[in-house]
Each structure stands twice: as structure tokens, then as C-alpha cells.
């Protein structure tokens, strides 16, 4: 990108992070009030945040390591089913339900990550898709006594957290708290040395391997963190909806989080959350006026992949860069480019020896 | 004892013997070049030394430790760094981040789950990274993204990534391949400068000027076998070597 | 359970496998030659089944049998020229994403045009009457499927082995760069191969449609096991795809006999088992996608 090439990235001011998190908190809390003004409804906000956590976890893996998973529904669904099952048969306390859901999803992600990450690119995508489908079909038939089979898990009671039932406004604030923490930790992870290694994996895995890094372990760790986030999101989903449909494990759900993340912008953390908002909002608005909203969603997704693969975030970045470019002096740009070329006596074009 | 001792290294690929009982002794502090016509097995040897390929036979000892059956990252952590034929860097990241990654690998080892470590605690590592960039002459571009560097500058960056580890042995695979005259010259200067730091180097090269300028010892491979091994003057006059190269590069 | 019924079940396994093999062959051809994982391949099968239903409802089965593969060939060419060719230089993830998006769009377009209910797509009426094949009575259509698949496989091998075009394809599967240097027009070859893959999916759709359901979701439902067949067989290996397809087909068939609820899941269990034993697949070539 031209902007990156010309303008060295400046050091961070210590105020940047707290300000960003404050804005995030404000947006999350006020979302139920904003949505009705644009044709949505307050409950949509909670849904957007739940899917946002899912997309956030997805981005931590796909956006940063570059490994495209088509099976994240497995963690979402397992988290949802386990939490729902507990609430149906074990008790009404929200905390154990959440812990069980998250632990189950994380455990499965360790297993899946171990198996699938031995492969690359296409192999990896297919394997993740396949394993998720396995769970889906397992839930439909052999395990239907536990999962409710085709009907899903119905009639989940409203759980209670410290004596307070999680419904209405309470659950929204609870989800906001979870989402806020999710974003906070995601940002910490991404800015840590671990996060840098993930970006290195996406950039050039071979180089990383020969630079003393056990790449496989980093990939598995990223996969598991991603699975944890997805499991948490699925758990919240079960609690919020008090119902777990079988689709939770289906490729449709995996595809949905993929679409949200791509439309929002992979690798930006906020992008996929924005994407979740966009997709759910469109779904809500479109399904009222046409039966083909899934078709429209697919077309929008394809349009992004073809024309704007960086998603909404890339679009915003381009607009902002264009504005900044117009304001920079052209001679200054020329001068810098010549300085770079002149220093080592070669043109900036890459030459190949074979 | 030599820093790197390989003996009897053999590698076969589906009927083709790429390496046939190759012996190699690299002394600490030397610049040891491996030359030979195309297909001689030079790249295969390099791949075996860095752990990409497992040999079918032979032993390789680095400072007394066996390298066989170790994955590439372990070999790197032992102190061997590799420069690739086409410069392998992290193009989407800034130069300083490129080198910081290597410095972090040196500091934290092959895996550290420091996912919550605050960026501020990276100051030391970042200083080291900038120092190394200065050593290779890329300091002004520390905060630029690496993608748009020229090939020569990418080579420098790759060297910086390797050096951040303070390796004891540097393996270079045709470092001047595809470079213009000026770039080759500046690369050679840089390599000389690194030699002054006392680093041992193994270089695979086709450019004979570079080989004879830099090397303290040369091993010649031909069809998987070592046909000559010694000081540059010896190799220059060796008949077997000249015959192997007939029709190839000029000596 | 008699030997007879076991043998019949094994025969059915061959028939299941045959459909997987046809789809997997197309997938592996496209992947091996073009390097593209075509997530829309299942949708091609689905469209083949729908076209088969449409045409056979209007004019009887045999016209469908002839037309559908040709129509799918054309569709494959359109897809490659119109979309896929722009993604050859793009990262692998983008290729997967765009073909996945296409699969979704195609599925929804079909749902829009024909609704979501399963369409009845019967084979020719003689094929519905079970015939005595020595070990018992068996639906002839399944035999037709097996027969057609064997014929296609043999034809494919002959073409690849003994024609110049086949040589180019095989070379291209090993080293597409080399083809370019040799001055062979790779672009046309790519388009043709993609069309060929689609044609195979079309054949699978028109002969398999009567046995699988004809509804919008069938595309993706057939894609995942077929991809697994490709992975288990070894990416880019045609013999591998065939062997793996048979293996999967038998696994499904036998589980229907022994413990039906597992029938859908068994595919994945077998896949996991094979991959744990041989991570590169049965005939996987080292270096392909590693």
C-alpha cells in the first residue's frame, strides 16, 4: 500500500489504547439505542455482540496466521450445546454453564488443531470443514438423545448469575462485559510478541521456521485461542436464545462467520465485528422484504472477495489514505523515493535469477 | 575440532544419488565456499545441514552436537542461520519488525506463550533490532514496510534477520544470484564486514569472483561427490575441478 | 445377514463410491492442474442433477444424459473465464473464498428458481425394476451408475495416457510453470480442464440425481465427502481418488447395514483414520501442498 511505503509508521502514544477501548465500550453499551434509528431493534445489538465475539476469535486465527478455517461452527456449536445441556439437566447457574461450554469447545479445538494444522492452505480448510460436518451429522443422528436431533436443544431455562436472571437488559450488559473483555484481550494478544509471531506466520512461514521458531506450536496455540473465543460466543448464544439449533454445527454457520470476517476485514480485529453487525443488520432488514436475503448476502460477499478483499476496513483505509495523499506535497514524495533508490544503487523492481 | 564436521553424508532421491558420502570440515571463523556445476548437490547439502532434508546416511556434528533428525528451528536455535537463494523476509511487516522477530526468537526460544506481554516490554529487543539494521546499512528504513525493498536490500534485511540471533555459523545459498554488478559489490562488502565480526560462513556460489574474493577454503562438489577440497590457490589449479567445469563457469 | 445380502450391500457401496469418484476426479483434475480448490464443485453436481430433472421431465431421460454433461462443460468454461481465471495469482485463501461464495450463490439461485423441496428425478422406468443378478435382486440403475463410472474412468485414463492433450495435462499437474516456458498456451488448457471437471460433475449429477435427492443443499452435502476423498486419495492423484472413493462408498454402505445412524459420520471417521496413518493420503505425492 502506498501509504505504508511512504509514511513510516509513527510510535504509539500511551493514550491511544485507552481511548480506543473507551470508544469501544461506549459503542457496545449504546448499540441497542442506536439500532432502532436505522431500522433495527434493540435485541439485535446483543446478537451482534455475540457473533462479534465469534468473529473476533475467527479473526485471531485467520486474519493473523492466514489459515482459513471452515469449521469454526464446531466450537460455536459445541460450546452452545454443552452449555445448553447443562442448563437443561444440571442446574440454572450461568457460571458453570459458561465454563463447561468454553472448556468443551477449547478441548475440541486442541484436538482439531493438532490434527488439522499438520497441513496447509487448502488441506487445512477442507479438514476443518470436514470435522465440523462430522459433529453436525453426529448431533443429528447418533447423538440425538443428547442433542435433540433435528429439533435442536429446546426449552433451555433462563440461567441465573449471582441470583439475577440473565434476560432483558441484564443479559445485554453481561454480553457487553464479555465482548469488551474479549476485545481487550484480543488487542493485547495481537500486540504481544506472540501476536507478532502470528503475523510472521502469515507473512512467510518458511522464513520463520528457519529463524528458530517452532511454528507448529504457535499455530496450535492460535487455533485454540480462536476456539476458546468461538466456544464462549456459542455459550452466550445458547444462554441468550435459550435454544440451540442444529445449524449451529453446520457449514452454514462456519460460512457465516467467514463472510462476516471477510466483509468486515480480516486481520483488523474490529473489522470482523463490524462485519458481524453488517451481516446481521442486513439479514434483519432484508429478510423482512425478500425471501432471497441469503442470496443477496452471498452476492455481497463475493463482491467483497473480488473487489475489496480487505473488507470494510480496507475500504475505510483507502478513503482515509486518499484524503491524506491529496494533502501531502508531491515533491516530498519524489524526494523520498529517490533517496531510497539512490542509497543502494538499484531499482526498486524485484529481479529473479531463474 | 572443527565447528562443523560432516562425514559420509549421503542422500538418495528415488534412484538418484544427490549426495554420495560427502565429507565437510568447516573451521571456526573461516569462510568456506562450496562450488560445483549445476546439479552437483550443493543445495541438497545445504538443505541437509539446515534440517529441511534428512540424510540417508552419515553424521553431522555442530560443535559436537548432532544435527540429524533435528527440525530446522532447533538447528537455528543451536546457532546456525540460513540465507536463501531468493531472499526470504517478511514482506508485509516493517523492517524493524522483521528483525525483532529474530531477536525475540533468540530471547524467548522456539516457543513462548507470551500472548499478554505488553508492547512496552519489548524495548530492549527493539533496540537490538535497530542496531542490527544499522550494521547492514538499513537503519533509515527501519519503520518502512519491507515489501518494496530492492532485491539487494531484501538480501541485507535477510542478513539482518539472521544476525539478530548472533549465530555462530551462517549458511548462504547463492547470495549474489540475480544481482547487478553494483548490488553484488555491495553484498560482498557487507559479507566482508560480517567476516570481521568473526562469524563462520558457508557460501554456495556460482560467481567465481565472489568465491575467490571471500573464501579461505573451498570444497568442490560434482555429481554428489567431493572432488576437491582446500585453499583457493589449490583449487584454482586443480585439474579435476577444471574438467568438471568444462563448459560451465570460468575460473 | 446372508452372504448374498452382504455382497449386494458391497455392490451398493461401489455405487456410492462411483458418485464420489466422479466428483472427486473433477476436483482433483482442477486442483492438480490449476491449483484451485473448487468449493463450487458440489454446486456443479447439484446443477447437473437439477438440469437432469428438468430435461428428463420434458423429454425423457436419455436426452438429459447426453445434454447435461455438455451443458455443464459449457458452464464450467463460463465459470473459469468469467471468474476463476482472475484468481490464479491471488492467494489460495481468496480462491477458496470466491468459489465458496459462488457455491452459496448458486445454491440460493436454484432455491429461488425451483424452491427448496426435493424434486422427483426418476431414472428410466426399466431401471426401477429389480433384476436378478445371481446373488439376489438388485436395482439396475445402480449397476448403470457403476458401469458408466467405470467407462468414464477408463476413458479418462486412455486420454491422459495416450493423447497429446493428456500428456500436457499430466505435465501441467506436475509443473505448470514448465508448460508456460515451453510455449504451450496454458490459459486455454486451464479453461478446458475446468470445463472437463465440470463435465464430470455433470455426469455425476445426471446419473446420481435419481439416487441422491435433488434439492439445493445436495451440492454442499456431496462436496465435503468428495473433498475428503480427494484428500485421502492424495491431492492431485487420480488413482488415489478412485481408490479412496470406493473406500468411502463401501464405508457408508456397510454402516447402513450394520448401524445406520453412523452412516453419515463414518465418512469422517474413515478420513481421520487414513490421514493419521498416512498424512499425505494413500497416493499423495510429496511436495504437493506441503
What features would you describe in this structure?
The complex is a heterotrimer of chains A (354), B (251) and C (290). With 354 residues, chain A is mainly alpha-helical. Chain A has one domain. In chain A, 73% of the residues lie in helices and 1% in strands. In chain A, strand 1 and strand 2 (164-165) form a beta hairpin. Chain A starts with a helix and ends in an 11-residue tail after the last helix. Chain B is globular, with a radius of gyration of 19 Å. Chain B contains 9 helices and 10 strands. In chain B, helix 4 packs across helix 5 (151-163). Chain B is an alpha/beta fold. Chain B has a single domain, classed as P-loop containing nucleotide triphosphate hydrolases (Rossmann fold, 3-Layer(aba) Sandwich). With 290 residues, chain C is mainly α. Helix content of chain C is 72%, strand content 1%. In chain C, strand 1 and strand 2 form a beta hairpin. In chain C, helix 9 crosses helix 10. The longest helix of chain C is centred in the first third of the chain and has 32 residues, at 3-34. At the A-B interface, helix 8, helix 9, helix 10 and helix 15 of A face helix 2, helix 3, helix 5 and helix 6 of B.
Explain the layout of strands and helices.
The complex is a heterotrimer of chains A (354), B (251) and C (290).
Chain A: H1 2-6, H2 16-34, H3 42-65, H4 73-89, H5 94-116, H6 121-140, H7 144-147, E1 160-161, E2 164-165, H8 168-191, H9 193-209, H10 215-241, H11 251-264, H12 270-289, H13 293-307, H14 311-327, H15 330-343
Antiparallel strand pairs in A: 1-2
Helix pairs in contact in A: 2-3, 2-8, 3-8, 3-9, 3-10, 3-11, 3-12, 4-5, 4-6, 4-10, 5-10, 8-9, 9-10, 11-12, 11-13
Chain B: E1 4-13, E2 16-26, E3 31-35, H1 42-50, E4 57-62, E5 65-66, H2 72-78, E6 80-83, H3 95-108, H4 123-135, H5 151-163, E7 169-173, H6 181-196, E8 200-204, H7 208-214, E9 217-222, E10 225-230, H8 232-237, H9 239-244
Parallel strand pairs in B: 3-8, 3-9, 6-7, 7-8
Antiparallel strand pairs in B: 1-2, 1-4, 4-5, 9-10
Helix pairs in contact in B: 3-4, 3-5, 4-5
Chain C: H1 3-34, H2 41-59, H3 61-82, H4 92-114, E1 131-132, E2 137-138, H5 140-162, H6 164-174, H7 176-181, H8 186-208, H9 218-233, H10 238-258, H11 266-277
Antiparallel strand pairs in C: 1-2
Helix pairs in contact in C: 1-5, 1-6, 1-8, 1-9, 1-10, 2-3, 2-4, 2-8, 2-9, 3-8, 5-6, 9-10, 9-11, 10-11
